[in-house]
Amino acid sequence: NQLASARERITPNIMGIWQSTVPELPRTHVERLHKTYGFTANQIRALWKRYTELAGKKGRITKADLQKVPELHINPLFELIYQIMDNPREDPEEGINFESFVATLSTFRPVDDLQDARGDRDDEEAVYHDVHAREMKLRFLFRIYSNEYDTSVPVEQQTIRADDLRRVLKQMSHGASSVNGDEGDASENEEFLRNVIDQTMAEVDKDNSGTISFEEFKNILAHIDVETRLSVHFS
C-alpha cells in the first residue's frame, strides 16, 4: 500500500515534467540554422518551442496548426504563404518540417534584426547586407505572385501573368474582407480588380510580353518600403 501510494505521488509529477518539456535541439543543428537563415540561437530555440507546441505528438505542423497562430491566420496572404512553406516535394499529409518553417519565417525578419545580425562589418558589407535583405523579401513576394512555390526554380525563370495578379489580389481582398466582416458588392470588386490589373500590366510590362519579369517587378516596387511591410518581430 505504501508503495502504491508512493507511485501515485510520483507519477503525476513525472508526467507533468514530461508534458511541459520541449526536446532540445542539438547545438550543431542550431548553429547550422543560424548560419543558413540568420536567426540567433535564442530565436531558433523560441521558434522550436512554438513549433513543437503546435505539432504536439504528430511531430510536424499542419495547415490547421498554423491557423492557430493569430499573426498568420489573419494575414490576407495566409493561404499563399502556407503553400510556399509547404515543401511541394514532400507529402502534404505529412505536414511541414521545422526547417521549412524556419526558412519561410526568415523572410520576415525585421530590418532592425537584420542590422543587428550584420555586426561589425564595414560600410561596404553593411550596404550589401541591406540590399541582400531587400532582395530576399522581393524574391519571396514575387513567388507568391508568380504561383511558383518550388524554391529550386529561380525567380529569373518565372513570370507574373494577369491571371496571377488577379489570383493574389482576390486572395488579399477576400482575406481583408473576412477580417473586417465586409464582403462588399461582388460586381464592383471585380470591376475594381480588372482596372487595377489592366493599369498595372500597362505600367510594368515594359517589353509588352504580356507578363511581368522579376526585374520589372523590382522596378515597380523600387520606392516601396518592402523591408518594413514584410517584417515580423521574433522573440
Give a nutshell description of this structure:
The protein is mainly α. Helices cover 64% and strands 0% of the residues.
Could you say which structural class the secondary elements and strand pairing correspond to? mainly alpha
Regarding quaternary structure, what we see is single chain
What is the terminal-to-terminal distance? 49 Å
- The amount of helix comes to 55-70%
For the secondary structure, the number of strands is 0
Largest sheet: none
Mean pLDDT: 75
Percent in strands = under 5%
Categorize the overall geometry: globular
SSE run = HHHHHHHHHHHHH
Low-confidence segments:
1-20, 118-129, 176-180
Q: Give the helix tally.
A: 13
The gyration radius over C-alpha positions equals 22 Å
Spell out the blueprint of helices and strands.
Blueprint: H1 2-20, H2 27-37, H3 41-55, H4 63-66, H5 70-73, H6 78-85, H7 98-106, H8 111-117, H9 123-146, H10 162-180, H11 186-204, H12 214-220, H13 226-229
Helix pairs in contact: 10-11
